[in-house]
Amino acid sequence: MITRRNVVTALLTAGFAPWTVAEAAAPSARQTELFAAWHRARRLGAPLLVLVVPDGEASWVRGEAVGGALCEAGPGLIRRLAGYAPACATRDDLRLLGAEVEEDTWFVILDGSVPVHVTLLPPPSGSDDPIDQVAHLLLRHLPEQPPRIAARAEWVDERIPGSYWAYATGCGANVEGLDDGYGYLCGMGSIPERGARFLAFYVSELDE
What we know:
The protein is of the alpha+beta class. The chain contains 8 helices and 8 strands.
């Protein structure tokens, strides 16, 4: 089990400066998961691919677009993702690992060095559906790496560190593995099947 004490010990062992570790001494649950994901990626010899969590309403758009792209991922994208350990984190979370990213950044790649080397991917663009934009972005700009993980299990089937999978209906959304629900009013709108399973970021368990 990953605890806050484990996180501090792992960061010190990895060579992070004491003042950086001190800032991480009381991390939120999401920050703890980010540190654990980075440490695991380092042990696997894999880069960590982080989906950057934006503030406010933008988090819904991003969660639906990326969640949809992952759920629909074909063999080519799954092979590409097999070279990367997954995580989701806010810009503030990433700063605790020494990673500074711009506000419009969607994805960053962190290596296992200390200080962490950060590679930014360009944001999705074009006139396609946002789900297709994300898939095209990852296929075009995510560098190929030797496979390190079971990609479909870790990127699609299981919970990605720093997020929860949720499933939307016209009356609300259920968070997989939790009893929490998101509060639409019943009848506010219909949710298309495409993108109905999405990544939820602001779940209370992650901010404790």
